[in-house]
Amino acid sequence: MSIQNVAIIGLGLLGGSIGLAIKERAPEIATTGFDASDTVRKRARKRGLVSHVADTAGEAVSNADLVILCVPVGAMGEAAASLADALPSNAIISDVGSSKESVAIALSEVLPDHTIIPAHPVAGTEQSGPDAGFATLFADRWCILTPAEDADEAAVASLSEFWEKLGSKIEIMDAKHHDLVLAVTSHIPHLIAYTIVGTASDLEDVTRSEVIKYSAGGFRDFTRIAASDPVMWRDVFLNNKSAVLEMLGRFSEDLTALQRAIRSGDGETLHELFSRTRAIRRSIIEQGQDDAAPDFGREH
Ligand code: NAP
Fold first, then answer.
1. Does the pLDDT at position 1 exceed 80?
2. CA spacing 20 to 30 A to 199: which of 90, 98, 172, 174?
3. CB contact at 8 A, 116 and 94
4. Is the shortest distance between the CB of 98 and ligand 1 below 6 Å?
């Protein structure tokens, strides 16, 4: 089944980008959208994020064959409940949440008789809201689908085809494994950035103006990540608790080992680690997941 009518619930960075990507890359697909915020709905109309911005979630989904929930992971259940009564019985329900196991549980509790195929486009920025979206967000980025073992194969194929139209590459994964992988590639890096920026702003013997003035030494790259949406990230940590805590345990052990190496003057350990990490950066560039330009392409 080819997707023809998509309803997007939540018209911030992700929802807006999906609407704009459809408009640019798959204009044959009709889009409707809804956001709980009146202000966001007004901006979405003005920017033309979707063809029709509805005033209720029910109105947005009443003719949809695919509904994508683009709200914070802690709000997925509530968003699904708000449209349950108006949802066509054959519609596929999906989402873009950054953690997958808790979202799958929340959606299946609210919509037990519907086809639910959770998904996570691994693409984003530190911006949020209806002005943040752009049509190329998903180009050459992975979109991970986490269908249940007994999921409808035709629905998985339709959703994969939909994301491919928006430029994504597809990976199918078990939800639990997704949560572990993303804990280490995304959630822990955000936690570290929030911590280091918080620590620097709490220092007593180094002033805040010194931290800002000399931020090019590395700090400012953490501040980009630490500027990410507080609601979204609060929900990610509360909803991916066990995977994050497991990876955080591993991280703390490695940090302690580094502390020991520095204290004991063990340069060999430091050099060996820093050489391995440099190779990982090279692989990311080789696989087209970042730009090779020095200093992230900043102009000097
Ligand atoms: P966003 O820009 O803040 O947009 C979310 C929108 O959903 C907001 O306008 C919010 O309105 C609205 N909303 C909240 N509860 C709602 C409800 N029950 N019904 C309808 N609308 C509701 O957030 P985002 O960055 O697009 O993130 C959306 C989802 O994508 C999250 O689950 C996140 O984990 C996932 N994701 C994010 C990124 C990223 O880099 N940002 C990447 C991949 C996946 P209010 O602001 O008024 O609450």
1. no
2. 98
3. yes
4. yes
